[in-house]
Every structure is written in structure tokens, then in C-alpha cells.
Amino acid sequence: MGIDSTGAERAVDLLSEGFRGARVLIVGGAGGIGVEVAEQLRALGARVVSASRRGPEPDVVQAPREDGDLVAVGVDLTRPATILALAAWVEREFGGLDILVNTAGMTRSVPLRAIEQLDDDTIDEVVTSNASGVLRIIRDLTPALRRGHAPCVVNVSSVAARTGVGSNVAYVGAKAAMDAMTIALAKALAPEIRFVNVAPSALDTDFAKGRGPEFIARTIAATPLGRLATPREVANAVLAGARLLIMTTGSTIYVDGGRHL
Ligand SMILES: NC(=O)c1ccc[n+]([C@@H]2O[C@H](COP(=O)([O-])OP(=O)(O)OC[C@H]3O[C@@H](n4cnc5c(N)ncnc54)[C@H](OP(=O)(O)O)[C@@H]3O)[C@@H](O)[C@H]2O)c1
Asked: What span, in angstroms and rounded, lies between the C-alpha atoms of 115 and 95?
């Protein structure tokens, strides 16, 4: 590994050296934010594994590559057995984990006032994919993280947890749960493992399809900086949380142009 996180390094060194050879798992790595994080990490010399539902079962894919080529594996946060299988695979192939990025998530649009339309399946899937599945993956990877170099977990949350405005009430609650779990884990697992949340406002990715121009105009109007955030800006915050902000744990970094204010 290129660097020791002692607090004495310059920012430029932390970013340019801190990811060299780092073993990184991005859950949700195939998504709009995940792809951007993976690309930047690979450029900085990390060994990156991307996991999501569309990847193959961990056992049938090749081992993580030294040359930085991305490896994709399968996991479904709503199926705990697949999380255990992924953790076992990471253990076997990497022997330890330095950085875990949780950027998987899903939602469906159900207006907050139309709470009667929020069906059980949506509540369960949204809460599992954005909160309880994330907790399971952190739990199952904690042994590998404990053996990692300067281990850090970066969770991608949402400004919705702070504003109480989002695609549906279950989503808002699930992201708030993620924020609270991050605080609890940051305290409980310090000083071994750091935890940082990155909370974007609405982005132009596949995440909430069909939002439409009206939604985008309303969001921009409610954002002091007057535009949507980009996946790259969110990825930049993920990288900063993982290797630049080494005295930060349990905090949420908003990448929302001031939308939470
Ligand atoms: N985009 C926004 O407007 C926005 C705003 C605030 C916060 N966020 C948060 O940012 C994160 C990433 O958003 P994004 O814009 O990159 O979304 P995206 O493009 O839709 O990507 C989401 C990723 O999550 C994976 N995923 C979904 N459900 C999963 C499950 N049950 N198990 C495993 N993987 C699952 C998807 O891959 P598969 O389909 O292959 O499983 C995909 O890789 C999410 O947590 C979201 O809540 C997004």
C-alpha cells in the first residue's frame, strides 16, 4: 500500500498514493455513481470489485486482478445468502478489505401524501435494498475490513434523510436509518474502521426513472447552487471520504448544492 494514514500526509499524497493497491468492493458498482467511483479508483491503482444483481455468482468469476481490471460479481441485498457468499469470496480472494463503498439502492415513486399507495412489497424492498441489506453486508465484511489497511466504509445515503422529502416515505426512512447506523458503527468500531456517509441530492442517473422535467425544475429551484449534482461530484466525495478525510468518521457529507439547508 502506498501510504500510512497517520495524519501527516499532504492531501495530494493521500489522494495520489492512498488508493494504490487498495482492495475495494463497490456494492452497486454498476450504477451511475458506482461506475464513476470504479473508474476513478482504477485510474489511481486500486483493485476494484463491483457487485450488483446483474453480476455472476462470486464463485464463477475470476479472481480480482492485479492490473486494476474491474471484476464484477453478483449480490442481491434482498437475499442474505448472496451477501454471505460475496463476503466469503472477498475473504478468499483478497484476504482482507481496505475500502467498502455501499452505493447500491433502489426506489419507486410514491408521493409522500399518497401513503395508502405504499404497498408492503415496496416497503420491504426499499428498506432492505437501502438499509437492512447494507447493514448485513457491513456486518459480514467487518472481519475482512478489520484486517484491511486504513479500512473505511463509505455509504451513499441521500439528502432525503435530512429534508424528509424523497421518492417515498420508506426510502426517506431507510436512508435515515443508514445515517444513524453509520454514527453507531463509527463509534463502535473506532479506531479500527472509519465510516463516512455521502448524501447526494437528485442526480441525472437511472436511479429514479421518469422523474420528468417538472421534477428537475423544482429540484433546481430548491437548490441554492441552482443545478443538479453530477455522478462525478458524488464520486469525488466518496474518494475524499475513503482516503482524504482521515480524521472524519460518523459524518455525512452532503453533495447537494445546499439542498439540505
Ligand atoms: N441518483 C439520484 O438521484 C440519487 C440521489 C440521492 C441518493 N442516491 C443514492 O445513490 C445510490 C446510487 O444511486 P445511482 O444514481 O448510482 O443509482 P443507479 O444508477 O440506479 O444504481 C444503483 C445500483 O444499485 C444496484 N442495486 C439496486 N438494488 C440492488 C440490490 N437489491 N442488490 C444489489 N444491488 C442493487 C444496481 O445494480 P443492479 O440493477 O445490477 O442490481 C445499481 O448498480 C443509491 O443508494 C441512491 O439511493 C441517488
From this structure: 45
Cβ < 6 A, ligand 1 pocket: 28, 30-34, 52-54, 75-78, 103-106, 129-130, 156, 158, 200, 202-203, 205-208
Predicted pLDDT of residue 12: 93
Helices and strands, number each (H, E), in the chain? 9, 7
- Say what the pTM is: 0.96
Instruction: Locate the ligand 1 atom nearest the alpha carbon of residue 128 and give its number.
Output: 31
Q: Which three cell numbers stand for residue 90?
A: 472477498
pLDDT tens-digit readout, 244-258: 999 999 999 999 999
Q: Whose CA is nearest to atom 11 of ligand 1?
A: 103
Q: What domains, with CATH codes, occur in the chain?
A: 11-255 (3.40.50.720)
Query: What does the alpha-carbon distance between residue 113 and residue 196 come to, in Å, rounded to a whole number?
Result: 31
